[in-house]
Design goal:
Helix content is 31%, strand content 27%. The protein is of the alpha+beta class. It has a single domain, classed as Jelly Rolls (Sandwich). The strands form two sheets. Strands 1-2-9-4-7 form a five-stranded antiparallel beta sheet. Strands 3-8-5-6 form a four-stranded antiparallel beta sheet, covered by helices on one side.
Length: 173
């Protein structure tokens, strides 16, 4: 078992296949994708049930996959030396891209950790599947990357709001 920065261990998710193209099409991110692309993504997808406190991805690890929330809640944590993990926000909306936008750009490293705030179910899609789709249909790749950019923008906007609403620690005397 790996340990995260706070000393908590990774929990192994209960994985299953059985993700359908129809299930993906029902998630906002995948709306308007052609059937062939949905079929390819579904064929490589796995579902995982994660317990409360489980680490889904770790900051700085290789971004080999993209994760979408089906149910539950996922925290976005950024580790700072001398400070520890800083909570940047919590994703609760089903279909949210909760981890892995870094899988779409070099150096392919997660820029934050994702931890389940409560028992959660996520879909994992390998980076290689997206790369194959991008090679086969560059315009569709462009459309998908626009969706990724929008999800990142939403996440950053949410993080700013979250941080403004978070009580600050008093200055040390």
């Amino acid at each position: 078992m790996n340990q995260d920065h706070g000393g908590r261990s990774d929990a192994t998710p209960r994985l299953s296949t059985g993700v359908t193209a129809e299930e993906l099409a029902g998630l906002r991110f995948f709306e308007d994708l052609p059937g062939w692309a949905l079929e390819r993504l579904a064929g490589s997808a796995t579902k995982g049930r994660f317990e409360q406190g489980a680490i889904v991805v770790r900051q700085n690890d290789e971004a080999r996959a993209v994760y979408f929330l089906l149910s539950g809640a996922a925290q976005d944590l950024v580790y700072f030396e001398g400070v520890g993990d800083l909570l940047m926000g919590v994703q609760r909306e089903p279909g949210s891209l909760v981890a892995g936008w870094s899988a779409f750009k070099p150096p392919y490293r997660y820029t934050s950790s994702t931890k389940c705030e409560e028992a959660s179910e996520l879909i994992r899609l390998p980076r290689e599947t997206f790369e194959g789709i991008f090679e086969e249909d560059p315009y569709l790749g462009y459309q998908i990357l626009k969706k990724v950019a929008s999800a990142v923008d939403d996440r950053l906007e949410g993080a700013v709001t979250f941080l403004w609403e978070t009580p600050h620690m008093p200055e040390k005397a």
